[in-house]
């Protein structure tokens, strides 16, 4: 399900940043006593999928009869919904009377899973769309000992999604509603994803992997208050609200430590490409930075937009050459606090049809301007998937 609170501003630029420049200098928030970061201990790095995963095998795992296998407690399986319109069917052996967590996690930023649970006769027992973010989670008390089936698909047929799949025995020692390993400290019911963060107390209450920087404290990236001291913006391809996986972003936390502080970034985007620029802060519990503004400048330091508010902006480079631009983040004049910036690639649009190859609705053929999500595909006998739903014609199975 889409994030309704995202404020998206499309900025049509002659050049705007997509290639995320590798990490910034210094460090952000301090490592906390909870020891979070990636609570799953996973080395998996989510990215927009470009091929089918290895679990598909020779026959694929697109239906119940060809389901692949997962076992309880095994390391998370890195999978993909690819190409668009794909399904993943997976079977698992469960024991009657035991409560299990069945889940997807660690999605790419433009991915969204829907998870279903079936018994061995094909009857649907449960389903889930969103858990921490666009990941999915089912808590299930097994009704018999034997085989159950999971089906994973993207929320929309035009989406391609990478994710990790897991099955664990349910453990929630502190009864805060979050089980291991989503909960980065299962012995403290005030620590869980999106809990109220008390900045500067040395404790990571919200499971971001770091303690937030206390109000009034300059971050370690200062001085970055003008064009000459601008720092490269951090990059991620992972879902930025799955906080337990996003230590790569939160470890590069910034602050607006007073009402006159500004932070400058450089962002470079290749030709015919685009990216989302994300500022993760204002809606987080315990943060006082509730209002802020983005300013975008071209390579000559000329202002392009006039201070767009929001947490999620699409910026694009419509030109035939790479361009470097500047982004300024500043307070509204009264709020101060912390935030975590990030840049997310969404690919190219070389056929100029308005759809990018790695966006929520990815262009499945960027060499043909007539092929894109939502295109007319009434001719279902020509063998061409015009609307990027995985079939010729319209995919009615989603």
UniProtKB/TrEMBL annotation:
Q: Which residues form the Peptidase C-terminal archaeal/bacterial domain?
A: 86-154
Per the record's keyword annotation, is Signal included, yes or no?
yes
InterPro entries xref list: Peptidase_C_arc/bac, Put_metal-bd
Keyword RNA-binding appears in the UniProt entry: no
Q: Where is the signal peptide?
A: 1-22
Q: Pfam families, per this entry?
A: Cu-binding_MopE, PPC
Keywords of this entry:
Signal
Q: What is this protein called?
A: Pre-peptidase C-terminal domain-containing protein
Source organism per entry reads Sulfurovum indicum
């Amino acid at each position: 399900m889409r994030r309704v609170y995202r404020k998206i501003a499309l900025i049509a630029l002659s050049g705007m940043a997509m290639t995320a420049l590798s990490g910034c200098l210094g460090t952000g928030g301090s490592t906390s006593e909870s020891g979070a970061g990636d609570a799953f201990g996973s080395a998996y790095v989510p990215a927009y999928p470009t091929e089918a995963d290895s679990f598909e095998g020779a026959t694929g795992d697109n239906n119940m009869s060809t389901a692949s296998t997962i076992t309880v407690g095994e390391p998370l399986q890195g999978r993909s919904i690819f190409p668009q319109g794909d399904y993943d069917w997976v079977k698992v052996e469960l024991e009657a009377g035991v409560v299990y967590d069945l889940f997807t996690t660690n999605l790419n930023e433009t991915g969204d899973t829907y998870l279903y649970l079936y018994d061995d006769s094909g009857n649907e027992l449960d389903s889930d769309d969103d858990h921490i973010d666009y990941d999915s989670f089912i808590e299930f008390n097994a009704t018999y000992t034997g085989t159950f089936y999971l089906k994973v698909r993207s929320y929309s047929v035009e989406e391609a999604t990478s994710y990790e799949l897991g099955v664990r025995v349910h453990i929630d020692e502190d009864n805060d509603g979050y089980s291991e390993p989503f909960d980065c400290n299962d012995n403290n019911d005030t620590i869980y994803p999106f809990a109220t963060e008390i900045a500067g107390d040395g404790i990571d209450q919200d499971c971001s992997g770091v303690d937030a920087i206390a109000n009034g404290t300059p971050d370690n990236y200062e001085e970055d208050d003008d064009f000459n001291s601008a720092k490269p913006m951090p990059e991620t391809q992972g879902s930025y609200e799955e906080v337990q996986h996003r230590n790569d972003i939160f470890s590069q936390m910034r602050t607006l430590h007073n009402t006159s502080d500004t932070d400058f970034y450089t962002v470079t985007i290749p030709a015919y490409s685009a990216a989302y620029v994300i500022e993760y802060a204002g809606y987080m519990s315990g943060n006082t930075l509730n209002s802020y503004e983005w300013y975008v400048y071209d390579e000559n330091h000329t202002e392009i937009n006039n201070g767009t508010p929001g947490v999620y902006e699409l910026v694009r480079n419509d030109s035939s050459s790479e361009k470097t631009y500047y982004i300024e983040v500043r307070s509204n004049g009264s709020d101060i606090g912390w935030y975590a910036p990030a840049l997310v690639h969404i690919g190219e649009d070389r056929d100029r049809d308005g759809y990018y190859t790695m966006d929520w609705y990815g262009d499945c053929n960027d060499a043909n301007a007539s092929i894109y999500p939502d295109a007319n595909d009434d001719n279902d006998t020509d063998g061409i998937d015009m609307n990027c739903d995985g079939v010729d014609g319209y995919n009615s199975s989603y």
